[in-house]
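Intended use. Records like the one below are meant for learning the mapping from a protein sequence to its folded structure. Do not use them to infer anything beyond what is encoded.
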Amino acid sequence: MSESCNIHIKENKNDTQYITIYKHQNGSFAGVGKQLKNKFKSYKIVNGISEETPKQIANGIGCFAAQVVTFLKTKVGDVYLIPSNNIGTEEYEYILYVKDNKINIVASSSESSENLEIMYDGPLANFMA
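Structure written out for the chain above:
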């Protein structure tokens, strides 16, 4: 099994997707979930940058989405940008959204049933991947 996942990036939890990323392999909590946590747990979303801006920031949701794609896309294949209305049934799903200028995550899995079940919803820094 390839353990595929969809990663939705949103401005706010209840917004429509800003972008959807499909990852074909290693989409489990221990795989891409852990990678996302380790990379982005300390990130802050800001509005405007300067020369003194720290490295773990994104200048808005578009900048953050581009950083996630850049981080995940290391080879041909495996990671794809897909239309939000073209979503299949993947084993894992992540929703990354902004709350109080920090990255939060909703992590869902269909490991124990045919339907996705929310396993965690909260700050990315506290996600137990």
